[in-house]
Specification:
single chain; alpha/beta; nine-stranded mixed β-sheet; six-stranded parallel β-sheet; 13 helices; globular
């Protein structure tokens, strides 16, 4: 396999380092805006030179972002080249375009590192759905948020202090919005649901709320009641109805999710035969993520393509009910079950209505109770 590598940052460099030890995959060209020299690959700023090179059969996209990554990936598919990417925003945003196009052009497309970094989550979904119906997917999918919440819970840090520490360690970007507002997790659960259920979830119908409004007072409330807060994604299918959302969620302190430390992930599927299966590991990092990009290239050599057949667009129904911890805003008195300090616990309300209420009260903080009331 000869690869045209797009991007030479954290993941791109890690991919290059790993394949340098192999004899079945080689990097022929690297598209990079920096002036670097490599001993065994041509470095260029011109993506067209990758398209024009008939010896390159696979494009590995490690640039990140939507543009020009989308234009490059689409052009590669149009040119008949296989594609491997770690870009969850790209695949989620253009799912309805890129996956059918790859099928039409007869090229292979893989994106295992897009969800879970170094965890082989999507490839496990691929295996699981071959022999059983997947009923539920989701879990802790963002290492930045988990690090912040873990530091607030175990070390007693405030949100701002925990975020600064995460940034100093390289777990959070200078602008952490995509992570802390749940957008990264949102992309991941939509992509996971599409593959697990064989459909195309409508992203506009999948609500998301992050952790940026959590306070030290909230964390102390949770500890008092034996709870731990995590940012969790959920996707389900039942009797032809699909649900998906991202929200802070409270777990009993001895639950598996409550024990996940620092920047680790715990991603779970529930199958009709297997029951619960969870994958635990590093959700990011140069070599863990690049490892899965290389795994995808090896899968291409073995003849594998995308993880599931492309499915029709479906509506998302979040009418299922949960109880919520709510601090701030104005909440209907008749829906209050009990008080936790300055916060309240609601009676069961639908996920859709909880997120709709939060849009009207953006300074409030909400967290679902995992086991109900």
């Amino acid at each position: 396999m000869k690869v045209g590598l797009l991007g030479f940052g954290v993941v791109g460099r890690g991919f290059y380092d790993i394949v340098a030890t192999r004899n079945d995959i080689s990097v022929a060209k690297v598209v990079c805006l920096e002036d670097i020299t490599l001993p065994d690959a041509e470095v260029t700023r011109d993506f067209q030179s990758v398209l024009a090179d008939d010896s390159i059969d696979t494009v590995v996209e490690a640039m990140g972002g939507l543009h020009p990554a989308y234009e490059f990936v689409r052009a590669a598919i149009e040119a008949g080249k296989n594609v491997v990417t770690s870009n969850k925003a790209l695949v989620c945003t253009f799912y309805d375009e890129l996956i059918p196009l790859a099928n039409e052009k007869g090229v292979k497309f893989r994106c295992t590192a897009a969800v879970g970094g170094g965890i082989c989550w999507l490839s496990e979904l691929e295996r699981a759905r071959r022999v059983q119906k997947i009923l539920r997917v989701g879990g802790i999918m963002n290492g930045t948020c988990n690090y912040i919440l873990d530091s607030m819970t175990r070390l007693g840090l405030g949100y701002d202090e925990a975020l600064k520490q995460a940034q100093a360690l390289g777990y959070a970007e200078a602008n952490p919005t995509t992570d802390v507002e749940g957008i990264d997790t949102w992309h991941k659960v939509i992509l996971s649901g599409n593959i697990a259920f064989g459909v195309s979830l409508d992203p506009s119908q999948v609500p998301v709320t992050g952790i940026s409004r959590i306070s030290a007072e909230d964390v102390e409330n949770f500890k008092t009641h034996g709870k731990v807060c995590k940012l969790v994604s959920t996707g389900t299918q039942e009797n032809g109805t699909y649900s998906a959302y991202v929200q802070p969620t409270l777990f009993d302190s001895n639950a598996p999710e409550a024990t996940i430390p620092t920047n680790y992930n715990l991603i779970t599927l529930i199958g009709e035969h297997s029951g619960r299966q969870s994958l635990y590991g590093q959700g990011a990092g140069r070599y863990p993520t690049a490892y899965n990009v290389v795994q995808d290239c090896v899968d291409l050599l073995c003849g594998k393509s995308f993880y599931a057949p492309y499915g029709e667009k479906v509506c998302v129904d979040n009418s299922g009910t949960m109880c919520y911890y709510i601090r701030g805003g104005h909440f209907p008195t008749e829906k209050i079950a009990e008080h936790w300090g300055n916060a309240i616990i609601t009676t069961p309300i639908s996920v859709a209505s909880a997120h709709a209420w939060l849009k009207e009260n953006p300074d409030a903080f909400i967290a679902a109770l995992d086991a109900g009331c």
